[in-house]
Amino acid sequence: MRNTFLSYIILSVIVIILILYTKQHSDTIINVSSSVINHQNDMYSKEVIIDIERNSNKENNLKSGKFQMSKNIADNNKSVAYDYKCKPMDSNSTCQPLKFSKRLLPVTALYSIPGSGNTWLRHLIQQITGIYTGSVYNDTDLLQNGFPGEGEKSGKVVVVKTHRVNKLDKGKYKRVIILLRNPFEAYLAELKRHFGGHTSEITGINQKHMQFAFGQFMRTQSKHGVTRLESWFNATLSALKIVGSDKPTLIVHYENLQTNLKRELIRICSFLGFKIWVDVLRCTICNAEGNHHRRSESFFPYTEEQTVKITSHIKIVNDSLKATCGESCALPYAV
């Protein structure tokens, strides 16, 4: 009898502790409405007009080469903004233990063209979810430096990196995240990776060499005969076709990750079906850089012809984004 009464007392104490713990931590989970997932560009960074001087006799802004880019695109040396005190960790530390998922998740493609920040977004997703990200590639540098899921393409990982736009509509992928970045910046980032790896930078010493290399780089053709100059345009329009299908798709703009990382992480977690803990969210923002996020320099190697061509591509893609999923999907920089 005494043992039964003692067991009852212990059980009651455990229940009370659990109730108090749940109440204490219930406010640390962020509840997200669907409107947060849909709205991508509620906040705009201050914009500066970069005026590339052209022949004043040309009739319109496209031909004159004028275009607008957000200040963060022109100057990527600024840190991600946050509204609380940060406690940066060692670059090899993580905001929570990382692991492969114990249950098979829906295979989710993380698609972008090269140079769009795919590896950086993988770092952010790993930090906020605690699950490794995978890839259709086998990059030994990434495998040994923070991405143990490199090469994994199953539901054991939270997303699978890919640059293969023609595979997005295949049965393997149940969901798709499309990461878009301003092509002027994406091409430069890929140039740096091509010549120096995931963290290389362009310095004043090697700018002259890189200027020459850039011309050859942009003329490079794929096996389908498409030049690199056309690659962002063609691949992005192809990827947007997925948005109109019945496959769940989320569009993420690289520039929004720079200017409003908190909101974008909430959108991404909600899309992936993960709960968001406030302390993990704050930690992820404080340690957003990771080991594979390049900083940009003041380097603009584009010719007049390339500038006009890419600017026209941006405008067409922006119109397609608006037609596909409304103003909320529009590019976060003016064109």
What is the CATH topology classification name of the largest domain? Rossmann fold
Q: What are the low-pLDDT stretches, counting only 5+ consecutive residues below 50?
A: 21-27, 39-79
Q: Sum up the overall morphology in one term.
A: elongated
Which structural category fits the helices and strands? alpha/beta
Report the CATH C-level class of the largest domain.
Answer: Alpha Beta
Rg over CA atoms, rounded to whole Å, is 23 Å
Strand content: 5-15%
Taken together, the total number of domains comes to 2
Major sheet summary line: 5 strands, parallel
Helicity, as a percent range: 40-55%
CATH architecture of the largest domain: 3-Layer(aba) Sandwich
The mean pLDDT is 77
How many strands in all? 7
Number of helices, where a helix is a run of at least 4 consecutive DSSP H or I residues: 13
> Taking strands numbered 1, 2, ... along the chain, how are they ordered across the largest sheet?
4-5-3-6-7
Helix/strand order: HHEHEHEHEHEEHHHEHHHH
Please write out the topology:
Elements: H1 2-25, H2 34-38, E1 47-51, H3 61-64, E2 66-70, H4 71-74, E3 108-111, H5 118-129, E4 134-135, H6 140-143, E5 160-162, E6 175-180, H7 183-196, H8 207-219, H9 228-243, E7 249-253, H10 254-259, H11 261-272, H12 278-286, H13 304-325
Parallel strand pairs: 3-5, 3-6, 4-5, 6-7
Antiparallel strand pairs: 1-2
How would you characterize this protein structure?
34% of the residues are buried. It is built from 13 helices and seven strands. It is an alpha/beta fold. α9 runs parallel beside α13. About 14% of the residues have low confidence. Helix content is 43%, strand content 9%.
